[in-house]
Design a protein that fits this description.
mainly alpha, Helix Hairpins, membrane, lipid metabolism, DAGK_prok, transmembrane helix
């Protein structure tokens, strides 16, 4: 068996079959536009199908402005916002795992259950990270505010 690199391969870009595929492949800024369109479609599909994602987006809509407005360091602003975005990221990945597993088969299978459980665990870990970040950074500020106003 002989291995050839792309430049010496018999299926180079000059062949009719590969040139058609290369013409369809988007490049440069057009690639970015199509990638963003597919990303948006994934967010919309997850919003439509997953109630947990809708709930987390609603919480993010409240917490992200708070993360921007609270008087903390720049690094703490990033940690607060990043921890919320991490939850959304984990939920998107979990939803994609569930959709792929369900597409393969709706029958119960140990590996399918394990994949879904791991996706769910990723969301739980992201939620714990967010709770810790918000508790450590905003907890003392909230406690100070409560003591002043009560």
């Amino acid at each position: 068996m002989t291995f050839m690199n792309r430049s010496t391969s018999s299926t180079s870009r000059s062949s009719p079959a590969s040139s058609n595929a290369a013409d369809r492949k988007h490049r440069g800024l057009l690639h970015v536009v199509f990638a963003l369109r597919h990303s948006w479609a994934g967010i919309v599909a997850t919003w439509r199908e997953e109630s947990a994602f809708r709930q987390e987006v609603c919480v993010a809509a409240v917490l992200l402005p708070i993360a921007a407005l609270v008087r903390v360091s720049a690094a703490e602003h990033v940690l607060l916002a990043g921890s919320i975005l991490l939850v959304l990221l984990a939920e998107l990945i979990n939803s994609s795992i569930e959709a792929a597993v369900d597409r393969i088969s709706l029958e119960h299978h140990e590996l399918s259950g394990r994949a879904k459980d791991c996706g769910s665990a990723a969301v739980a870990v992201a939620l714990v990270i967010a709770a810790i970040a918000w508790g450590v950074i905003c907890g003392p500020l909230a406690w100070h505010w409560v003591r002043l106003h009560l």
